């Protein structure tokens, strides 16, 4: 679950819990909203934890190797190398 899906679950759950006064026969929308907000918060925490562990990297300042560059004094574009 990504950050966007987690935020969407939180927003939809908040709308179901706080903004609607609709009664459905066998479903309590307040409970469904709280469950969706909890799932969204859990998904946001897990996604942040996973992405946070991926961004750790090791940077070294030591050169990895040296290259030798040779220069030619004469350059003829028609001459194949």
Write the layout of secondary structure elements.
Elements: H1 3-19, H2 29-54
Helix pairs in contact: 1-2
What do these coordinates show?
The mean pLDDT is 83. 10% of the residues are buried. The chain is mostly helical. It is built from two helices and no strands. The chain has a domain at 3-44. The protein is elongated. Helix 1 packs antiparallel against helix 2 (29-54).
- Please state the CA-atom Rg, rounded to the nearest Å: 29 Å
Class by SSE composition: mainly alpha
* Unreliable segments of 5+ consecutive residues: none
The topology string of helices and strands comes to HH
Overall body shape: elongated
User: Share of helix among residues?
Assistant: 40-55%
Strand percentage lies at: under 5%
Give me the number of helical elements: 2
Mean pLDDT: 83
Distance between the termini: 54 Å
Biggest sheet character: none
Oligomer: single chain
Number of strands: 0
In short:
Helices cover 53% and strands 0% of the residues. By secondary structure, it is mainly α.
List keywords for this structure.
53% helix; single chain; 81 residues; elongated; mainly alpha; 2 helices
């Amino acid at each position: 679950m990504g950050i966007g899906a987690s935020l969407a679950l939180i927003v939809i759950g908040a709308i179901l819990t706080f903004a609607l006064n609709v009664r459905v026969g066998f479903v309590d929308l307040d409970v469904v909203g709280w469950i969706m907000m909890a799932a969204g918060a859990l998904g946001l925490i897990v996604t942040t934890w996973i992405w946070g562990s991926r961004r750790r990297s090791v940077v070294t300042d030591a050169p990895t190797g040296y290259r030798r560059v040779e220069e030619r004094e004469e350059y003829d574009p028609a001459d194949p190398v």
